[in-house]
Amino acid sequence: MIAREFLKLLAATLGIRHEKIDTKKQGLPVALQALSNVMSNLIPVALTIAGSDCSAGAGIQADLKIFQYFRVHGLTAVTCVVSETQQVVRAVHPVPVEIVRDQISLLLDSFPVAAIKTGMLFSASHVAAVAEILRDFPHIPLVVDPVMIASTGAPLLETDAVDAYRELLLPLARVITPNLPEANVLLGKMIAHESEMELAARELETLFGAAVLLKGGHLDGAECVDLLVDGGVARSFRAARITVASTHGTGCTLSAAITAALAVGAPLSRAVEMAKNFLSEALSESYKFTTAQGRALYALNQGTFFSKNEA
After folding, report:
1. 294 is annotated as an active-site residue
2. Hey, what domains does the chain have and what are their CATH numbers?
3. 140-168 per-residue burial string, b: 16 or more CB within 10 A, e: under 16
């Protein structure tokens, strides 16, 4: 369902007549091929600047899966190599800043990048280097996911990098996507209730001059509520809470899907709506593996369609 919606949006953005990609008459595979033939040199490109997660549940590996699902060509600039699974972060190895800088510059000089997202940046020097380059590309919408803490509780950002985010990177964003703990850090105060979210999101928008998608999944309740404030206009996105054994990668999944939607020209509010729908599918279709030691490892279904492992 999401794929069909996305094809229609992509066709409309590129000015392709709807009958050329009629998914109901042609079927999804034929429609995809027809779209491919029409837009052979118009494939949207998105860049993710983030860490590598060897378990592929988060980071650049997750981003690439989601870009591919939405028919967007994905590029990566790796900031850190992380040894982790859904259960543990065992080691973080930052990539030298000059290598990060070179990856980003090379890709922006070479490809028609239509949207960019940042994920794990790790240090103040990494944040500063990324911001220095992206400052020269204000026409490319930037999604900043201010990754600070892993779902396991392990820190993924050095303390002094928060000021670099505030001063250098967040003001460049089209939208920032903090969860509540991250927003608490950025604002220097606690957001404990849904009733406090709109004021907090508006404060963040005023501080950084960027739209804010404040994610409320850390609150209790039968629903997960995210709040988008863009240009002073607030819109809430509500979804039934889906209970899963692991939420590893949910933030990356949401921000990557927003980035993909922006890359094909969707307005921000629509991009968030599509990303939220995709995340709900990824959660509801989660699957698991069993390790040699008999432990369960869980994964979001980030566009991978096969029978779930129930063992």
Report:
1. no
2. 1-42 (no CATH), 43-299 (3.40.1190.20)
3. bbbbbbbbbebbeeeebbbeebbebbbeb
